[in-house]
Design goal:
Residues 297-389 form the Stress-response A/B barrel domain. The chain is of the alpha/beta class. It contains 16 helices and 13 strands. The radius of gyration is 23 Å and the shape is globular.
Length: 415
Amino acid sequence: MALVDMSDLLRHAHCERYAVGAYDVVDTAFLEAVLDGAEGCDAPVIVSLAESHFDHFDFECFMPAVVDAARRARVPVTIHLDHGHSLTTVERAIRFGCNSVMVDASLSSLEDNITATREVVRLARGCGVTVEGELGYVPGVEGEDAEKHPGAMQMTSLADAERYIAETHVDCLAVSIGTVHGRLRGAPRLDFERLSALSDALHIPLVIHGGTGLSDDQYAMLAANGVAKINYFTGLADAAARSIVAEAESKDSPAYTALIHGVRGAVRAEVERTCRLFGAAGRAGAASAACRRWREVEHVVVYNLRDGGQNVDWSAFAAQGVEAIGAIPGVRNVLAGRALRTDAPYLYCWLIRFASPEVVASYRDHPDHVGYADKVFRPTAPDRVTIDFELVDVSGEEKESSLSTQPPTSSGTKR
């Protein structure tokens, strides 16, 4: 069922009153376990990557594995940047494959939070990417998340939330009603009256951070009161740690691979358990039918150089283009190429991958593209053809590796 649009998924969950689990992954063992667990109970799922965990993996190297695994999954999947620190992180996350993003400005003043979030929305809208906002503050209590989320709890105010939604136009909102990041101390006490008021007034999917440690009834009540996404990590980390400790205690001198052997199974079981508690189990088919597939676009430009390129250093010309174009938000990859045959009708090309069809317009109007195209590219390459290809395969499913032999959705311009 593959990678789908996050806004569509959350709207479906919100309407049907279930919550999708957003599980932070820190390595391929967690990634495989999250997807296996969701597939095991036929649940849509959100693979989440928190910037606070970037110390544990190379984000740029890890993301191709995340995207590929999501596209091969048998349930609907979205890829979310969680607790991003800056607009730069958002740009980078979109470039490497996230189709949902969040910048955490929840400890800032309301005005500063609105300003920061509005900038994220502006950038993400041009890339077709979902934006999660956060209002109120969910602190860390015990475990590694305690130091990553310092400070006191701040409950979400209804008046502030109404202003925030009106001025930012986020797609979903993380609210604070009594949960914490990490492990809870004592029995959890959640303000469901506050949550119900927020849900009734805002009419958008709500998000709960700090989903570990709640009771079965509380998970059901969250979904019944407008929560469509529940972030969950500490429970997975604890399950993995228990597996490793048990393996270490069972042998005198266990090898590393033996120590981590049970991690996938432990994390998978916790994912499957919580998907059922969130009400997401068995929803994959209906969610898939309600969601748009996430489709990237291949922006192809074939061209010839003026005067046969006699006075152009093509390598330098191409390098300049890669640098200028590659920095534009929503551009995932830029490749420059030359024809194998010198008698080909066009001797040079750009292959530029966009994160989504929405990038076609935002890229065309972006000042970096306009400046490079008007001042450098068009004067040097007057003979050119541009076509935008939606990547699909002959069975109608998305395909990343090649252009389809079926007629694609495309637009062509010789200019």
